[in-house]
């Protein structure tokens, strides 16, 4: 009896599409699949190795001897080797023994394997992705949760360090154990989605998952494919979306991986100027090779299809798009037009997004891209790259640079927080405070903030207020929500014991309330990607480091106003408002329950004077280093007047006669005795900034 029987899962159409770079379901064909041939149960194997002389399946079942179970090369010169081995079933460990054209014998893990061994050998396992899902309700309504008009607050986490076994800090929690703690935590905190750093198989833990060898295999450190599916299923059942980090930008040079797969540079470019990444010591995919393109797009579709992922965050897109990324002059090859854009990678990304949104129109693709490459989130048919969103790296850098400044110096950096509004709507952005900002000596979020402990927490609460009330989507890395003091350590749990301290618990409560505010107030998300949803009220009061802006929903009454006081002073601040509107404070980051000083943010007076080019004004008591959110409540008369005012503005009419343009002033407020001691040392630290505030000149 033959130990390998001829068998195929490929049709001629499959092979044609594969070789054209247009087959996006290769995981149904390549790899190992349970089958019955000639009344015998066993496993079908298929692998692409066009330059191999011989391909065998090796494992415990044949003593790891090559040449015993030889696969058959297809007749069509596709480079596909395939065959059926009777008797092999789930759990069998195997590799491919590939005899190269030079006579070398390479032992390679299956590029399409669904599971890998977690040891030095890192062999593949015959496995399955069968799972009994019960997330139908989530999947049916997912389009609503992933809409650009829906709130999107993402919690980024690393499964190996979010939480570990309390009995043994060296031991990982399993996917199922993580589900027990993570699901209720995310639900209570109000995040809409989680983003898992790479869950694909990788041998090197310090890579954080970004050096992938098993692109179709769930990380076996935490359990089986079904265990990961259980975690995702539980998140879905509790109304929480799941975004997966996906890494098509490079792969490591491990001997059992994709590098030099059949004795040639099959998946990567042969020329190191195109195929090797000097910064990461890894290999770059050959995006111009159709079979490689089919492999990568099939991999993206696999995680959306088999694992019900709700989105993919595509890592290191900048490194893909630029031929000279991390290279000096003479270390890269220009494209056919003499430029530095990788045209093959650009085409690949366009094909990727086209394929994903064709089959999964209700998911999100998100680009981590740090340059100003144009039209990244514009549709492919309009000449764009087709991503759903892009990380707003410029906002992140400007914001952190501003908040690191001592409040006395912030007036010199005032435009750091206003400049992002100049390009806010060029792309569909997501504001990230990610893992990259709390490693490699950059300090934790709380220790980026200036001042003593009280000031640090006050600054961070103010930063989060700014972040959550600005238009784009949000992303916060684990630990940032409660003020993790140390930098992120991939091999250790977060310091959950910090929540025993009032200031950390207060910050966590504040982030929770911010999330729920963001989800409840339509003004904060309905028009988050449209200019009509944002309006500056005061963008130029740099002397006082005050920022005021409106957020607007689709309905006329859906309006909120955010006031940021980014100095340690207490003001009575005059703010222009529309006629016929009432305002109420709905969030104060300086509230004592969050660890604040307890200065009550409240409207202490209303005036009929025109102010800030608006017909009326309110006087708001502003706490120190705080963000205050107010909600508009319009009277019926106010609605009519506001509509008339809007009509006049559209017609180009000037403000009513007799009313002068506003000049912004800020008066020192009387501080209640019980809070005087708390803020006195802040005033002292501010030095000259604590002196009497001089009114701005009238513009």
Outline, from the CA principal axes?
elongated
Strand order of the largest sheet: 10-11-14-17-18-19-20-21
CATH class of the largest domain: Alpha Beta
Low-pLDDT windows of residues: 654-676, 685-699
Largest sheet: 8 strands, parallel, barrel
Count up the helices.
15
Number of strands: 30
CATH topology of the largest domain: TIM Barrel
Report how far apart the termini are. Answer: 94 Å
Biased composition (Basic and acidic residues): 634-654, 685-699
Subunit structure: Monomer.
Pathway: Glycan biosynthesis; glycogen biosynthesis
Organism: Chryseobacterium taklimakanense
Please characterize this protein's 3D structure.
By secondary structure, the protein is of the alpha/beta class. The protein folds into 3 domains: 12-125, Immunoglobulins (Immunoglobulin-like); 147-247 and 309-331 and 364-523, Alpha-Beta Barrel (TIM Barrel); 530-690, Sandwich (Immunoglobulin-like), CATH 2.60.40.1180. 25% of the residues lie in helices and 22% in strands. It is built from 15 helices and 30 strands. Strands 10-11-14-17-18-19-20-21 form an 8-stranded parallel β-barrel, surrounded by 4 helices. Strands 3, 6, 7, 8 and 9 form a 5-stranded antiparallel sheet that branches. β23 and β24 form a beta hairpin. α3 (175-189) packs parallel to α4. The protein is elongated and about 95 Å long. Mean pLDDT is 92; it is low at 654-676 and 685-699.
């Amino acid at each position: 009896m033959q130990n390998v029987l001829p068998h195929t899962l490929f049709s001629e159409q499959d092979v044609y599409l594969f070789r054209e770079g247009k087959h996006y379901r290769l995981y149904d064909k390549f790899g190992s699949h349970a089958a019955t041939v000639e009344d015998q149960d066993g496993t079908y194997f298929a692998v692409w190795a066009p330059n191999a002389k011989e391909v065998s399946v090796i494992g415990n079942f044949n003593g790891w001897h090559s040449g015993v179970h030889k696969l058959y090369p297809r007749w069509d010169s596709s480079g596909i080797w395939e065959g059926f081995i009777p008797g092999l079933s789930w759990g069998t460990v195997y590799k491919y023994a590939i005899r190269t054209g030079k006579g070398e014998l390479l032992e390679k893990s299956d590029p399409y394997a669904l599971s890998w061994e977690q040891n030095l050998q890192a062999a593949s396992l015959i496995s399955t992705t069968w799972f009994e899902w019960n997330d139908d309700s989530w999947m049916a309504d997912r389009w609503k949760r992933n809409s650009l008009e829906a709130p999107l607050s993402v919690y980024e986490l690393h499964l190996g360090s979010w939480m570990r076994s309390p009995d043994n800090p060296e031991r990982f929690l399993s996917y199922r154990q993580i589900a027990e703690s993570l699901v209720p935590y995310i639900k209570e905190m109000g995040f809409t989605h989680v983003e898992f750093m790479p869950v694909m198989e990788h041998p090197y833990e310090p890579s954080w998952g970004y050096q992938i060898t098993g692109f179709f295999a769930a990380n076996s450190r935490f359990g089986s494919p079904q265990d990961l599916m259980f975690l995702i299923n539980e998140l879905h059942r509790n109304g929480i979306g799941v975004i997966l980090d996906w890494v098509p930008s490079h792969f490591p040079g491990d001997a059992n991986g994709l590098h030099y797969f059949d004795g040639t540079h099959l998946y990567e470019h042969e020329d190191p100027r195109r195929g090797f990444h000097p910064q990461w010591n890894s290999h770059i995919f050959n995006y111009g090779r159709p079979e490689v393109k089919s492999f990568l797009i099939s991999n993206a579709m696999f995680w959306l299809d088999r694992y019900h992922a709700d989105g993919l965050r595509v890592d290191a897109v900048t490194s893909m798009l630029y031929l000279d990324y991390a290279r000096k002059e003479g270390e890269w090859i220009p494209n056919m037009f003499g430029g530095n854009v990788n045209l093959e990678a650009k085409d690949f990304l366009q094909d990727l997004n086209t394929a994903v949104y064709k089959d999964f129109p209700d998911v999100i693709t998100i680009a981590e891209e740090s340059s100003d490459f144009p039209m990244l989130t514009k549709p492919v048919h309009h000449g764009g790259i087709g991503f759903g969103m892009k990380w707003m790296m410029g906002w992140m850098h400007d914001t952190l640079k501003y908040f690191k400044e001592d409040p006395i110096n912030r007036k010199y950096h005032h435009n750091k927080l206003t400049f992002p509004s100049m390009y806010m709507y060029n792309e569909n952005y997501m504001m990230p405070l990610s893992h990259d900002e709390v490693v490699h000596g950059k300090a934790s979020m709380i220790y980026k903030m200036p001042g003593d402990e009280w000031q640090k927490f006050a600054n961070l609460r103010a930063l989060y207020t700014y972040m959550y009330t600005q238009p784009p989507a949000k992303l916060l890395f684990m630990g940032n929500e409660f003020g993790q003091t140390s930098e992120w350590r991939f091999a250790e749990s977060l310091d959950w014991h910090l929540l025993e301290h009032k200031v950390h618990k207060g910050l966590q409560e504040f982030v929770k309330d911010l999330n729920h505010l963001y989800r409840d107030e339509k003004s904060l998300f309905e028009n988050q990607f449209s200019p009509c949803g944002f309006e500056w009220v005061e963008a130029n009061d740099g002397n006082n480091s005050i920022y005021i802006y409106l957020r607007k929903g689709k309905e006329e009454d859906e309006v909120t106003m955010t006031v940021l006081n980014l100095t340690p002073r207490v003001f009575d601040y005059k703010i222009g408002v529309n006629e016929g509107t009432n305002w109420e404070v709905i969030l104060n980051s300086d509230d004592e329950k969050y660890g604040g000083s307890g200065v009550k943010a409240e409207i202490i007076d209303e005036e009929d004077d025109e102010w800030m080019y608006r017909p009326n004004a309110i006087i708001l008591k502003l706490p120190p280093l705080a963000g205050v959110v107010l909600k508009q409540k319009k009277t019926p008369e106010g609605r009519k007047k506001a509509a008339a005012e809007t009509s006049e503005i559209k017609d180009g009419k000037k403000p009513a006669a007799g009313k002068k343009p506003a000049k912004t002033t800020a008066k020192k407020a009387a501080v209640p005795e019980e809070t005087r001691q708390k803020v006195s040392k802040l005033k002292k630290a501010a030095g000259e900034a604590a002196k009497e505030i001089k009114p701005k000149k009238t513009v």
